[in-house]
Amino acid sequence: xxxxxxxxxxxxxxxxxxxxxxxxxxxxxxxxxxxxxxxxxxxxxxxxxxxxxxxxxxxxxxxxxxxxxxxxxxxxxxxxxxxxxxxxxxxxxxxxxxxxxxxxxxxxxxxxxxxxxxxxxxxxxxxxxxxxxxxxxxxxxxxxxxxxxxxxxxxxxxxxxxxxxxxxxxxxxxxxxxxxxxxxxxxxxxxxxxxxxxxxxxxxxxxxxxxxxxxxxxxxxxxxxxxxxxxxxxxxxxxxxxxxxxxxxxxxxxxxxxxxxxxxxxxxxxxxxxxxxxxxxxxxxxxxxxxxxxxxxxxxxxxxxxxxxxxxxxxxxxxxxxxxxxxxxxxxxxxxxxxxxxxxxxxxxxxxxxxxxxxxxxxxxxxxxxxxxxxxxxxxxxxxxxxxxxxxxxxxxxxxxxxxxxxxxxx
Length: 411
Fold this sequence. Notes:
Layout: H1 2-28, H2 38-45, H3 51-103, H4 109-137, H5 143-159, H6 173-182, H7 187-204, H8 211-218, E1 220-226, E2 232-237, H9 245-248, H10 253-275, E3 281-286, H11 294-307, E4 312-318, H12 327-338, E5 342-344, H13 349-353, H14 376-379, H15 386-397, H16 402-410
Parallel strand pairs: 2-3, 3-4, 4-5
Antiparallel strand pairs: 1-2
Helix pairs in contact: 5-6, 5-7, 6-7, 8-10, 8-15, 10-11
Pfam families: CRAL_TRIO
Protein name: CRAL-TRIO domain-containing protein
InterPro entries: CRAL-TRIO_dom, CRAL-TRIO_dom_sf, CRAL/TRIO_N_dom_sf
């Protein structure tokens, strides 16, 4: 009986505890209650003890289990929080990459052209700095340069035994230095170039055709001012014609080549004496809306680059008759000249020349402030006296033509 009573009381106590435990889980919000039969076994283990001790022991185990479950839940939440933070940080890192890829779009043609122009300007500036350093290292008064010029003269004397040595006198130290620059400062190469130039001059001069006098008398050549880079400027007008049978028939390229060569022969030494050895020449080539002669442009470039080396800075072509330019000539001009030394200006030539010339150093008819007819003392060789100057020099070189020269002066 006692055992039965004890067992009945134990069952009643266990049933009451079971109800309280289920209510606790419901109130506490725990989703995973302990496995069924856990507390039955726990009550059987303590059935021999007093009811108070059994309840305290059960409460202690229950409290520990609750704390462990809460700790597991907190640990899971912490892991979930870390995972979310990692995902946010990774997305935050990826977002700028996506934006950067959006920014790296293909540049437009205008942007590409601007970048190309900026790169070209930087490269040109670097070349100018490099040339300036080389120019400083090989200055006219340097000992090494004088030795190279002396070696070149020795080579010329040895190589020109069958050539009239008087032809060598034309090549002063400035001209020999120019040939040395174009030959990478090699005396042997410079000597060969000078000999080729002497042979070319012997074939070109003396002038036996009287038509050159008409050309010298009628063509207008103006020598005045400097551009923004301090290069002296020469104005040439090939289509300027006065009355005469020669000009009515058209301009002969061969004779014009001789004419230009003689002008440069007279003017360039003056530049070396008056404005220094290193100055280059800029040419304003005024077509006056006449014929666009590509062959004459080729003659100018050949003369200044090959026979007067390192003396050409730029050629500015103005007053172009667009209707006189064929597509073939225009294409050839752009391929041969535009990338090198020549700039082609249309009806906006005054605005364009203002980018390369100071108005105080430019003739009035080209947008400057110099009057070629009044400011003769300022511009050196003016429009009015340059032909007379060249004719006088021509008379000294070819005295046998003196009578013919005098007759043309009186006309």
